Automatic annotation (TrEMBL):
A GO CC term attached to the entry: cytoplasmic side of plasma membrane
GO molecular-function terms, A-Z: ATP binding; ATP hydrolysis activity
Designated name of the protein: Cobyrinic acid a,c-diamide synthase
SUPFAM superfamilies found in the cross-reference section: P-loop containing nucleoside triphosphate hydrolases
Signal peptide (residue range): none
Organism annotation: Syntrophobacter fumaroxidans (strain DSM 10017 / MPOB)
């Protein structure tokens, strides 16, 4: 598997926007092809990247229960559906996991999905995974090594506490994480100091910040992809600096 960046954080922290802008900078620096996996049930990484979804892997999982054509095996059916769900972009491909399992047994479908996802990942040099807060979707990946985990928080005590808890959770899960970075998003003003819990959890050199940018909010209201923001927009310049910091960590 290629170089893996995973993003996590509580809902509303802006991690999906950060994920999309990081992918934008990776592609500009020639770090491609990138496979972007939207592992948040509220899938909207495609909106940030400016592409349309063709479906999700959870749709394929539901269809496998009743819609496999006669004469087609389930593994061939699932592979076909995954290929249909894969969105091709400029320098990246995107696939959305969709909703988590509902009532009933999905073991066969999930096992097939895990095998197909691992095979798909092997075709890319870079992997960016936009997770829901609890990182639950990583249980679907048999290859669980992460080169860089970026935890995104808003500048609130609750958001920072959530980021610390996710960092603690990740350290006890059966996965290898080489580096963890905290990104405090939508910051109006740099504080004189970060809470002691945050510094103890991440270390002062593993804490970064991104500014609040009204233009980003305007783009969001107008339905414009964040990756089309002008290069001199504060959030674009700040994520470029963040990208350089991430490169230095890896």
């Amino acid at each position: 598997m290629g170089f893996t960046i995973a993003l996590g954080g509580k809902g509303g922290s802006g991690k999906t926007t950060v994920a999309g802008l990081l992918i934008h900078h990776m592609i500009r620096k020639g770090m491609k092809p990138v496979l972007a996996i939207d592992a948040d049930p509220n899938a909207n990484l495609n909106d940030v990247l400016g592409v349309m979804l063709n479906g999700t892997l959870s749709d394929a999982r539901e269809m496998m229960k009743k819609d496999v054509p006669p004469g087609m095996t389930k593994d061939v059916f699932m592979e076909m559906k995954m290929e249909q769900a894969l969105v091709e972009g400029d320098g990246f491909d995107l696939i959305a996991m969709g909703m988590p399992e509902g009532p009933g047994c999905y073991c066969a479908a999930n096992n097939l999905l895990s095998q197909l996802i691992d095979r798909l990942i092997g075709n890319y040099d870079y992997l960016v995974v936009d997770n829901e807060a609890g990182m639950e979707h990583f249980s679907r990946l048999t290859q669980k090594d992460i080169d860089l985990l970026v935890l995104v928080s808003d500048p609130s005590r609750r958001g920072l506490t959530a980021a610390c808890r996710i960092a603690a959770l990740v350290r006890v899960l059966p996965m290898k994480v080489k580096e963890i970075l905290l990104v405090v998003n939508r910051l109006e003003k740099e504080p004189p100091s970060w809470p002691a819990e945050v510094v103890e959890t991440f270390g002062p050199e593993r804490i970064a910040s991104l500014p609040s940018d009204p233009l980003l909010a305007d783009f969001d209201m107008q339905g414009k992809p964040a990756v089309t923001l002008p290069e001199d927009a504060p959030i674009v310049k700040a994520t470029a600096r963040l990208f350089e910091q991430l490169t230095g960590l890896c």
